[in-house]
Design goal:
Layout: E1 2-6, E2 20-24, E3 26-27, H1 29-37, E4 51-55, E5 70-75, E6 78-87, E7 97-102, H2 103-114
Antiparallel strand pairs: 1-2, 1-5, 3-4, 4-7, 5-6, 6-7
Keywords: Disulfide bond, Hydrolase, Protease, Secreted, Serine protease
GO cellular component, one term: extracellular space
GO biological process, one term: proteolysis
C-alpha cells in the first residue's frame, strides 16, 4: 500500500490549503500494462521502466493539478518517496491505475545532479 498526497484544486480552480491524502495499492507492471492497454492507449502500449503504477480503485487517484505530488510508502517506520504523479486515464476510474514517475529508476541520475 502506498499513499499519494496533494493540495487539490477546489471547485473554483483555486488550490486548497488542506493537504489531502489517499491510500492506493501499488500495481505490478504486468497488470498495469494490461489495464492500460484496455484504454484508448491500445493493445500495443508498453509501459516505460521509468514509470510505476498505483491505484485502480474507484474514486482513489491523483487528478488534474496533482502532477509532481509524491507517492510514498513506509518500511520499518521510515517513509520513502517511491513515485511522483505523472499521468493517468481519467481520475479514479475502476481498473485503471494512475501512472507515476518511478523514483528508484532515476535515483542515480538524481544523485548525480544534486552533487553538482
Amino acid at each position: 500500500m502506498a499513499f499519494q498526497s496533494a493540495y487539490v484544486i477546489g471547485p473554483k480552480g483555486e488550490y486548497q490549503n488542506v493537504l489531502k491524502e489517499v491510500d492506493v495499492p501499488v500495481v505490478s507492471r504486468a497488470l498495469c500494462s494490461t489495464e492500460l492497454r484496455s484504454t484508448n492507449l491500445g493493445p500495443d502500449f508498453q509501459l516505460h521502466p521509468g514509470f510505476l503504477c498505483a491505484g485502480g480503485e474507484a474514486g482513489k487517484d491523483a487528478c488534474t493539478g496533482d502532477g509532481g505530488s509524491p507517492l510514498v510508502c513506509t518500511s520499518n517506520g521510515l517513509w520513502y518517496v517511491v513515485g511522483l504523479v505523472s499521468w493517468g486515464i481519467g481520475c479514479g476510474q475502476p481498473g485503471i491505475p494512475g501512472v507515476y514517475i518511478n523514483v528508484l529508476y532515476y535515483v542515480d541520475w538524481i544523485n548525480n545532479i544534486t552533487k553538482r
